[in-house]
Amino acid sequence: MIEDIVKAAREIPGYVPVATRFRGFLSTSGRVFDIVAKDIAHGRLVITVIGK
């Protein structure tokens, strides 16, 4: 579960300066989920996970 979220966050290309919803990630269990993430000084912050 956590691994799926980390993998999804790392798959987002480029720089995300403001909180943005990214849709349609697939977990290893087959569930589709979205994440809201933004980049901060120390990496990428996942604000929330939707649908998991």
Low-confidence stretches: none
Our Rg estimate from Cα atoms comes to 10 Å
Strand content: over 45%
Distance between the termini: 9 Å
Structure description:
The chain is an alpha+beta fold and 52 residues long. A hairpin with a 5-residue loop joins strand 1 and strand 2. It has a three-stranded antiparallel sheet with strand order 1-2-3. It has one helix and three strands, in the order H-E-E-E. The model has no long low-confidence stretch (mean pLDDT 95).
Write the layout of secondary structure elements.
Layout (H helix, E strand, L loop, with lengths): L1 H10 L8 E7 L5 E9 L2 E8 L2
Antiparallel strand pairs: 1-2, 2-3
Key words describing this protein structure:
single chain; 52 residues; alpha+beta; three-stranded antiparallel sheet; 1 helix
In short:
The protein is an alpha+beta fold and 52 residues long. It has one helix and three strands. A hairpin with a 2-residue loop joins β2 and β3.
